[in-house]
Design a protein that fits this description.
CATH architecture: Alpha-Beta Barrel
CATH superfamily: Aldolase class I
Helix content: 40-55%
Strand content: 5-15%
Mean pLDDT: 89
Structural class: alpha/beta
Order of helices and strands: HEHEHHEHHEHEEHEHEHEHH
Distance between the termini: 43 Å
Shape: globular
Number of domains: 1
Strand order of the largest sheet: 5-4-3-2-1-9-8-7-6
CATH class: Alpha Beta
Number of helices: 12
Length: about 270
């Protein structure tokens, strides 16, 4: 059983909605990621998505775009991201770690080589935001050959036929995009989310995680009624961006404690 499968098994046994937390690797500086991952896990995150910086992040809003730009300016590369995973495992981090990014840097690295090196570093899964299923067969196969979960995204605009196609090649879980738009904090999650998730659920037995726009405790409460996990990214990056540098890890941990209900929000 993979770390991702085990995490979802434990969540089901506990009757709990999982939290998958996103960080841009190397933001706000190259050495910051390890401490921030530890803070997220201490606050109650169940899995970590590590964003590979890319110069043209089409699916991301301004918050993650800024974090990506800063990480690139700091010299963060795909190889640096893999070393970060390696370092986290050396530090004793046992939670599932997923690499999330865009296809171009992976293609430049080499699909087979990237899957091999990601698995060897200790990654558990790969999410590629801009690679359609028709073009993903070789990379997905490379992931499978190295026991790396291939986690696709499904948008609410997808047809039933396309949902079946995407779900058929997935492993670990499926990332369900809550809105037809880019990442970013939103006031609430869409009214039509329930119907969309029911359609995806009819096509797969894999766990479903809901992302894009999730940021508040009430969002997690709503997702908890619908599916197995929520993904939070932009809100976490916002917390890091606003915090005093000496208080970043504390601020991130407290935010996660609040959003998961472990801590009462300040009035």
């Amino acid at each position: 059983m993979s770390r991702i499968e085990e995490a979802f098994r434990c969540l089901k046994a506990d009757g709990r909605c999982g939290l998958i937390a996103f960080l841009t690797v190397g933001y706000p500086e190259p050495g910051a990621t390890s401490g921030l991952v530890e803070a997220l896990l201490a606050g109650g995150a169940d899995m970590i998505e590590l964003g590979i910086p890319f110069s043209d992040p089409l699916a991301d809003g301004v918050t993650i775009q800024r974090s990506t730009s800063r990480a690139l300016s700091g010299g963060v590369t795909p190889a640096f991201c893999l070393q970060t995973v390696r370092d986290l495992r050396s530090d004793g981090i046992e939670a599932p770690l997923l690499l999330m990014g865009y296809y171009n840097p992976i293609l430049a690295y080499g699909e087979k080589e990237f899957a091999r090196d990601a698995a060897a570093a200790g990654a558990d899964g790969l999410i590629v935001l801009d690679l359609p299923p028709e073009e993903s067969r070789e990379l997905a196969a490379a992931c499978r050959s190295h026991a790396l979960d291939w986690v696709p995204l499904i948008a609410p605009t997808s047809s039933l036929e396309r949902i079946r196609l995407v779900a058929g090649g997935a492993s670990g879980f499926i990332y369900c995009v809550s809105v037809a738009g880019v990442t970013g904090v939103r006031a609430d999650i869409p009214v039509g989310l329930s119907a969309f998730l029911r359609t995806v659920r009819s096509c797969t037995d894999l766990p479903l995680a809901v992302g894009f726009g999730i940021s508040k405790p009430r969002h997690l409460v709503k997702v908890r009624r619908l599916e197995e996990a929520a993904v939070i990214g932009s809100a976490i990056v916002d917390v890091i961006e606003r915090a005093d540098p000496s208080q970043r890890e504390k601020a991130v941990q407290e935010y996660v404690e609040v959003v998961t209900g472990r801590r009462r929000a300040a009035v």
